[in-house]
Amino acid sequence: MAVPDPPVETAGFKSRCVVHVASMDDARRIVDVEEIPDEGDVLFTISEVDGDATREGILLTLNDDVVAYENYCQHWTDVRLDSGDGAAFRNGEIVCEKHGAYFETDSGYCNFGPCKGATLEVVDVAVADGGVYLTDDRYAFEHLGPADERTRSSGSRIGFSGN
């Protein structure tokens, strides 16, 4: 039976995924660990390696751990958890401000709301040399911040242009 690799650790932080040295280059560096706020997130944009789609991710610290999830609610996937000004948190959980769904930060599991029982999609990251790196082979790191300037999680799913 193979023994899994231990978590990668840097300055007290660790990641939960197996890290391949080739995936730890500057092009995959998202941010310094110290730049992730406690009880907050860092929004970043990624693109599919095998396609044209761009997605957003949110990066969180959990005690001595760093996790990342795709930036959308499991109830309506066009609603972002962080629309550019930080995700909402309550009692250590991510809150979808549109639906009132609560997601556990350590697992992404929805324990309350219309998508109860669903889980946020994990984006694999690792901590090394004080930085957080994208290690998910499905994606390429594009930049910090939102994928575009529009806010997908507006107050209504119906547009009123006044025309």
Question: Can you tag this structure with a few keywords?
Answer:
163 residues; mainly beta; Rieske Iron-sulfur Protein; 4-stranded antiparallel sheet; 0% helix
In words, what does this structure look like?
By secondary structure, the protein is mainly beta. The chain has one domain: Rieske Iron-sulfur Protein. It is built from no helices and 13 strands. The chain has strands spanning 9-10, 13-14, 29-32, 42-48, 54-62, 65-70, 88-90, 93-95, 102-104, 110-112, 125-128, 131-134, 139-144. The strands form four sheets. It has a four-stranded antiparallel beta sheet, with no helix packed on it. A four-stranded antiparallel beta sheet has the order 7-8-9-10, with no helix packed on it. It has a three-stranded antiparallel beta sheet with strand order 3-12-11, with no helix packed on it. β5 (54-62) and β6 (65-70) form a beta hairpin. The radius of gyration is 16 Å and the shape is globular. The model is unreliable at 1-22 and 151-163 (pLDDT under 50).
